[in-house]
Design brief:
This protein is of the alpha/beta class. The protein has a single domain, classed as Rossmann fold. Helices cover 43% and strands 18% of the residues. Strands 5-4-3-6-7-8-9 form a 7-stranded parallel sheet, with helices on both faces. Helix 1 links the parallel strand 3 and strand 4.
């Protein structure tokens, strides 16, 4: 489990997700796998969604089980409503009804200028950012409303706030996602269900470690803390928001970017 020092009371608070079930979309991706393992370390059982990388999903499930937690792997196309509902039915039958949803999956594409970007890329980003979340919420949130408890964590990006060149399709999809989250937070709040966004900066993952590319001088100098964050930094925030330590936080867009993004008031 993760422990947080509470200096006011001179004791430790722990991120305790025992007896909770979580589902993570894009669980086999660079960030997703770290989120999966961190949720398990905090005590949660984890349903691991994958699109095509079944081998990695099976490997992750074995790692989760080695921690003494339950795990299952579930395939779906996150841009297809019927595929999401079919996954839900399988999750309910084989794993149980999740208390925690982490919507992490997104379609990758080549960034170009607005004038050069293929129109289809705008559609795929809308589908994988906005509709992915709409489908997941429609499928899994009704149970949370019934039990009057739930935690939804959505992965956004610092790019949505920065709106830098060559990112228009990605930014458009993530900013659309932001609107859905804010509306849903007000709709499900009365049922003790929270939904929040984690907005990573350019994050160090296993790909960077394997290639010794953790340091990016041009980017690092734009970050007040002077360096890139890691996949573990992002997973830590996800686990916090999934826990009851964040029970009074909802509708928030929370950058984990070393200060590169500071939302205004």
């Amino acid at each position: 489990m993760y422990w947080i020092r509470n200096t006011s009371y001179k004791k430790y608070m722990k991120i305790n997700l025992e007896n909770k079930r979580a589902i993570v979309t894009g669980g086999t991706g660079q960030l997703g796998r770290r989120i999966v393992l961190s949720l398990a370390e905090c005590g949660a059982d984890v349903a691991i969604h994958f699109h095509s990388n079944q081998e990695k999903a099976e490997e992750l499930a074995e790692q989760v089980k080695s921690m003494g937690r339950q795990a299952g792997i579930f395939q779906a196309d996150i841009t297809n409503e019927q595929s999401i509902y079919a996954m839900r039915d399988k999750v309910y039958a084989e794993f149980g009804k999740p208390d925690i949803i982490v919507n992490n999956a997104v379609i990758q594409y080549q960034w170009k200028s607005v004038l050069e970007q293929d129109v289809s890329d705008y559609y795929t980003q809308f589908e994988s950012c906005v509709m992915h979340n709409v489908y997941m919420n429609k499928a899994f949130v009704p149970h949370m409303l019934e039990q009057k408890y739930g935690r939804i964590v959505v992965i956004n990006t610092e790019c949505a706030a920065l709106a830098d060149p060559y990112q228009s399709a990605y930014v458009a999809g993530k900013r659309g996602l932001d609107g859905v989250v804010r509306c849903l937070a007000k709709e499900v709040g009365p049922y003790n269900v929270t939904i929040n966004q984690v907005a990573p900066g350019w994050t160090i993952s296993d790909n960077d470690r394997d290639k010794n590319q953790e340091v990016q001088p041009e980017y690092d100098k734009t970050v007040p803390l002077g360096h890139r964050g890691t996949d573990q930094d992002i997973a830590n925030m996800v686990c916090f928001l999934a826990s009851d330590l964040a029970a009074f936080t909802t509708g928030a867009y929370i950058p984990v970017s070393g200060g590169k993004v500071m939302p205004a008031i």
